[in-house]
């Protein structure tokens, strides 16, 4: 289970990551990631004001502790409710193990595709790792990813 501080929960947060972030697709899932822009944050802090443009484009919708947060999208195209929940649980478990390898403040949305319904956890993990490598958002010196 992901801790509450590591979850994306609001529609506005999902929309921000999907529209402004980078995307990497695999056969079973698509990963969208939005890294914090330190130049914008530091310039807004230096001026002493956060313009509405900066808040609207890059700021999370709730006060951030700087922690990495993850959200999941598993549509009805994946399958019936039981299948969708199983896929979401697997993805949550896989992302929990990968959170320490991601940069602080990164927002991630993992969207499951219909092929995820029939995939084993190790296949989903391989797709997730491939997408994260393509996005270049994992710490190379972070702890190794535990796969079961």
TrEMBL record:
<dbReference type="InterPro" id="IPR000100">
    <property type="entry name" value="RNase_P"/>
</dbReference>
<dbReference type="Pfam" id="PF00825">
    <property type="entry name" value="Ribonuclease_P"/>
</dbReference>
<comment type="function">
    <text>RNaseP catalyzes the removal of the 5'-leader sequence from pre-tRNA to produce the mature 5'-terminus. It can also cleave other RNA substrates such as 4.5S RNA. The protein component plays an auxiliary but essential role in vivo by binding to the 5'-leader sequence and broadening the substrate specificity of the ribozyme.</text>
</comment>
<keyword id="KW-0378">Hydrolase</keyword>
<comment type="similarity">
    <text>Belongs to the RnpA family.</text>
</comment>
<dbReference type="InterPro" id="IPR020568">
    <property type="entry name" value="Ribosomal_Su5_D2-typ_SF"/>
</dbReference>
<protein>
    <recommendedName>
        <fullName>Ribonuclease P protein component</fullName>
        <ecNumber>3.1.26.5</ecNumber>
    </recommendedName>
</protein>
<feature type="region of interest" description="Disordered">
    <location>
        <begin position="45"/>
        <end position="66"/>
    </location>
</feature>
<feature type="compositionally biased region" description="Polar residues">
    <location>
        <begin position="56"/>
        <end position="66"/>
    </location>
</feature>
<dbReference type="InterPro" id="IPR014721">
    <property type="entry name" value="Ribsml_uS5_D2-typ_fold_subgr"/>
</dbReference>
<keyword id="KW-0255">Endonuclease</keyword>
<dbReference type="InterPro" id="IPR020539">
    <property type="entry name" value="RNase_P_CS"/>
</dbReference>
<keyword id="KW-0694">RNA-binding</keyword>
<keyword id="KW-0540">Nuclease</keyword>
<comment type="subunit">
    <text>Consists of a catalytic RNA component (M1 or rnpB) and a protein subunit.</text>
</comment>
<feature type="compositionally biased region" description="Low complexity">
    <location>
        <begin position="45"/>
        <end position="55"/>
    </location>
</feature>
<keyword id="KW-0819">tRNA processing</keyword>
């Amino acid at each position: 289970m992901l801790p509450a501080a590591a979850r994306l929960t609001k529609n506005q947060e999902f929309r921000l990551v999907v529209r402004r972030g980078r995307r990497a697709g695999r056969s079973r899932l698509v990963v969208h990631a939005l890294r914090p822009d330190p130049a914008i944050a530091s310039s807004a802090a230096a001026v002493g004001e956060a313009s509405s443009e900066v808040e609207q484009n890059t700021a999370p919708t709730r006060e951030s502790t700087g922690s990495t947060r993850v959200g999941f999208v598993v549509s009805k195209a994946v399958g019936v409710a039981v299948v969708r929940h199983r896929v979401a649980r697997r993805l949550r478990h896989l992302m929990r193990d990968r959170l320490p390898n991601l940069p602080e403040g990164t927002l991630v949305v993992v969207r499951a595709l219909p092929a995820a319904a029939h995939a084993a956890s190790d296949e989903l993990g391989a797709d997730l790792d491939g997408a994260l490598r393509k996005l270049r958002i994992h710490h190379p010196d972070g702890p190794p990813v535990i796969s079961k």
